[in-house]
Amino acid sequence: MTERAAPKEAMSEVMSEVAGLSASEAAFDPVAVFLRVLAHGEGLGLPRRASAGSVGYDLQAAVRSRLVLEAGKALAVPCGIALALPEVVEAQIRPRSGLALKHAVTCLNAPGTIDSDYRGEIKVILVNHGGEPFMVERGMRIAQIVFARVLPVRFVESETLEATARGSKGFGSSGERALADEKMR
Question: Domains (ranges, CATH) in the chain?
Answer without folding.
Answer: 35-149 (2.70.40.10)
